[in-house]
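fyi for ur records
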Amino acid sequence: MSLKSLSILAGRGRGGETEDIPRIDLAPGDTLAVVGPTGSGKSELLSDIEQLADGDTPSGRRILLNGEVPDRMPLGLVATLSQRTNFVIDTDVSTFISTHAACMGKVAEDWPGTVLVLANTLCGEPIQRRDPLQGLSGGQTRALMIADIALISDAPVILLDELENAGIDKHAAIAALADRGKIILTATHDPVLVLMGRRRVVMRGGAMSRLHVLDASETAWQAHLSELDEVFQFARNILRGGERLPAKGLPCHT
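which gave:
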């Protein structure tokens, strides 16, 4: 289907109270951060979207597509990357990518090569064509799936659950997905990821309690936190590569 909008209509919190945010409308290219303490209902909100809730989930929310209640689940509407992503198929990376591309009717190019170019910009240890899927690390697995979703999948809605725990380049991952006009919802505790989108919904007690729009002050915070995050990534990449941090040349940002 051609998705022009996805709308989240309020349900209720765990105490039965009506949610404070009556409606959230999302269009292709939008990124919405879902924030709140552990157990606040972030994953439940993503689940409601994944199953196109129609008042039939514990939250009582309803999900609209193009302003209407869908009469059925559209094929390939949502791609989800959860905190635990594991392969059960026993094959290698190249065969997996080629098979998925063929299933999507995309056979005109070297999809394994194209996908791996992107995937290997996201993770530290390169993924090879003949690597067994079940032998990939957690970070490699999520990098491969993000590249696959970005380049092969036609799903217009992407759900990401705590991307920061994947050990990958989160900035590049979000950019790769957003650049393709997909609606992205990311449940996260990471302040850099939170501020990468224009809006964020705050969860409390299973309910949507606040909806914030990025302002000028937070835009400045986003730039500063991104600089600090670059320093952290710099140190992480050196240390996990087996080297020592330099005595001089520490990246400094003010």
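Residues 84-154 form one domain. thats all i got for now
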